[in-house]
Predict the 3D structure of the following.
Amino acid sequence: MSASQWARDLGMGVRFAFAGGREGWIRALLTAVGVGLGVALLLLTTAIPNALAERNRREAARSDHTFTQQKIPRAEDTLVVLDTDTMFRDRDVRGRMLEPEGPRAPLPPGLSEFPAKGEMAVSPALKELLASDSGKLLRERLPYRITGTIGEQGLVGSQELAYFAGGKGLGDRLEYARGARIDSFGNPDLPPSDPWDPVLLLLVLVVFVVLLMPVAVFIAAAVRFGGERRDRRLAALRLVGSDSRMTRRIAAGEALAGSVLGLVLGTGFFLLGRQLAASFEVYRVSVFPSYLNPSPLLAALVAVSVPTAAVLVTLLALRGVVIEPLGVVRTAKPARRRLWWRLLLPLGGLAMLVPMVGQGDDGGTFNQYLLVGGVMLLLVGVTALLPWIVERVVARLGSGGIAWQLAVRRLQLSSGAAARMVNGIAVAVAGAIALQMLFAGVESNYTAASQYDVSRAQMQVHVPEHLELASTAEKFRDTRGVHKVTALAETYLADGHTDASSLVQVTLGDCAALREVATLPSCRDGDVFAVHGAKYDTDTAKLAKPGKKLWFDGADEDRPGEHFSWTVPQDIRRAESREDPTGTERGGILVTPGAPFTTLASFAEKELYLSLAPAEPNAYEYARNTAARMEPTADPMVWHAVERNDRFATIRTGLLVGAACVLALIGASLLVSQLEQLRERRKLLSSLVAFGTRRRTLSLSVLWQTAIPIGLGLLLAATVGMALGAVLLRMVNQSVRVDWPSVLSMTGIGAGVVLVVTLLSLPPLLRMMRPDGLRTE
Amino acid sequence: MTIPAGSLLTAQDLRKAYGPTTALDGAEFSIHPGEVVAVMGPSGSGKSTLLHCLAGIVPPDSGSITYNGREVTAMSDAERSALRRSEFGFVFQFGQLVPELTCVENVALPLRLNGSSRKEAERTALAWMERLEVDELRKKRPGEVSGGQGQRVAVARALVTNPRVVFADEPTGALDSFNGERVMELLTDAARSANTAVVLVTHEARVAAYSDREIVVRDGRSRDMERVV
Amino acid sequence: MSIGHTLLGLLESGPRHGYDLKRAFDEKFGHDRPLHYGQVYSTMSRLLKHGLVEVDGIEAGGGPERKRYAITEAGITDVERWLATPEKPEPYLQSTLYTKVVLALLTHRDAGDILDTQRSEHLRSMRILTDRKRKGDLADQLICDHALFHLEADLRWLELTAARLDKLREAVAR
């Protein structure tokens, strides 16, 4: 066999791929779009590690006070940075106030000069937000003139909201404000991020496998678009004298052409998506196009493996087909599908995973290859088992309505094609179910239920040292949307001056505020209470005895007149503990402002607990604006019922986004093959309509025809997914618990895709059922 | 033209255009119960369109079609579908049998569309298949039978509901003359004995010779040869 | 085929001399069998006797060949009737049919009508034969089939001619 003949046959295939008139083009384009979408997703996936690394690098490069431990004196090369981070609605705004203290003060990445006092440089996204109507409330919070833009090097994402504002005299505020004096940005000494927890690593690996498997399945399906027509064309070639090996090579050439065009389109989609990616923010994470650079090696791997896979799949599909000059003969009765090797795949996968059970505990490690291999085998097992199951079940399906009969008979004749269509969705759903189970199982490790009682207060504001509590509280009371303000100051008293053995908490507040932390018998200004019955509090009873002398804990030895001591008054009254807004039972001593305790107030930590009117959607923003007027570095804390580990949240987000993309992709390919099938049956559909078949009957039969394999596919997917989920849970030493809501929601999403596809194919179906289809002779 | 007395299906002044192409340009037609009428004419003359209009598959742009005293053009799509299901039968040149269903299931299809139970429908279907001498094919799928057998199965399917009118569009077009004539013989015999009218679109004279009379369609206009002579 | 009707038809486009008629006939229909002068004279005198033609004028020099003939109203009606009557379907009648079609074209009558009428007549015969075939034994069937195939050949010729009427019209007009 000479190379030139090979080249000639392949070239002929390439020509056929595009030269088949309008239909040929459409077919080639469909294949290419399918392959292209898959390639784009592959490239994107290979680019994600780089993107994450780049984000980490930039984050590290601009880090300022966070990692600075030592205090350094003011010098020629120092810069004072105040952390004025805030939130707007649910978006983070990174804020910094800068004051260079000398000509050599370090410029942060992304800035070319320091903004002057009252001016700021902003990120493009923030600039846009501030200019928009919806940014009006934020505008009030940032009363600086915009004089510059932060360059890409200073931002970790295109949609990041950030600003640098200039200030004067910031050094004095370091006493009480979040911030630092620094002489450089970035912290090369610290590792860029903590080493990955093995469980998190497991999650990330599995997410990638779970997302890529359906893409592979999808590409395999895409190169088979229009297979029947291709077979007929090959038969015609046999008629004019090409032998069966030549036709195979021609078919390979066709597949090659489609997949190479797909590579080109895929690269285009990827570049387009990369640009588009800059304008999107997914779950608060945005990227710059330049982040998304696939590593050359992986890109080359994609470029080689996709066309190779396309050719292999084509040749494999042709294996069961004998192309004769006068038509296509499927090898007599296709061999009955055998079960054993199909079962071997998932069982083999399980066998690879089971030895790792229990290794994920505390610092254990997994064999990554075994893990990835096992998960892949299990998922490939789905695609191997599904055709067998569909064949068996469909063969047993009994009588029913006419629509049912049409659908079942069609499935009986071509169950393989039906199963192929659903494979991708089944794999995606199986993987997603396993992951969701794993997530639900380990969630407790990474998610702490917060103790905050969000029904009593939704925001906590720390009042800085230099401000007075009562008047600040008043400002918040006057703020729109604030329903109630509970102002409390807190400090501790010890039983000794230098050799304290017990501490008691002292809470200062007016009667209404104190009632939030304890049940008071009655309350007048001037009263003092001792709280009894708080959990874990044994010292109060010991120390809060009338006449006992207590010392202020942590008084600064160097500052005169602050050896503060306090004698428990004779008329101290008893109060019962209750949960305070932070969710803890507070013990200690409660003091009203009228009691002789005034000096203590200046040493206390002062907190405001805000209860917001639910009817005012912007209440949070008004409160933040008030807080920013009070002190720009104040970052009021919004209370949530649940707190998550951030990295965990990112992975989960990644999974959701990925699964959505993959399912959309598969849905698109389902639609394409559905339409192709319908087009091939156009004439039959028309003649069925002619003799009076209701459109409803035909539509229903199309629905059944998709719904039966999909139902089986989802059932199998749920089974395999739960099995995989159970093994993965055992690997990280979690008890196996089926997370039914996620099983149901994932299968639901899969079913939803099918429903959408069926709905979308109905209009063309109805159009094809018009009698015009009879007019072809 | 007035409706001829005793006419089962009558069309008057039918006009139909597909885009810029005029398919029917004032065609007339009428058929009596049990009558076999051949529609002849060169290809592209509009004879298939005439059949589609008469059968209520395609609504004409203008003109009237009366079936058994009812105006077909005034019916809704659902009503026309119901009419086709219960009163009409169809035979086309090819591509009409559902490839996934067995022959007997194909023949039973119209009965099942009318709501018969599967068992009953297939019993009736088998009786008709016997009449058309294809009962031994009942378990086979259309892909496994010859063209002539397939057409006979199609004829059985067209007759299985005891329709008042069978519309046959080039029913022998894909067959050789021997098989074609056999199909025509069986079709016309069965139709005559059941008093079923047959509208037979064909360009073959020897097929048209099985009709009682013929009309000629030329450039979308019809000529009823009975009236001319 | 009827020479009388043909000559009558040729006269419909205007009065002609006897020799003109012969030349026109030979040119259009007499490809392998030209008319004798004698045939023209005897036919014309028969038509004169029946009042289907009249003498329009005689040129100087006398002699029958110098007579100019014109068609009468009765003559036109006769041509009309002849054209509208289908020929009895039998083998090898295409020469008559051809003459009829050409005459129809020459006299601006609807040639398609002639073909349709003829087809209808053929079909009538074919129906009878088909019916006999269905009821008869194998011998009947074979005999009928023979006739049917011949008739079908005629019908195909009719179809073909119908499809080429426009071209024929051009050719005849030349």
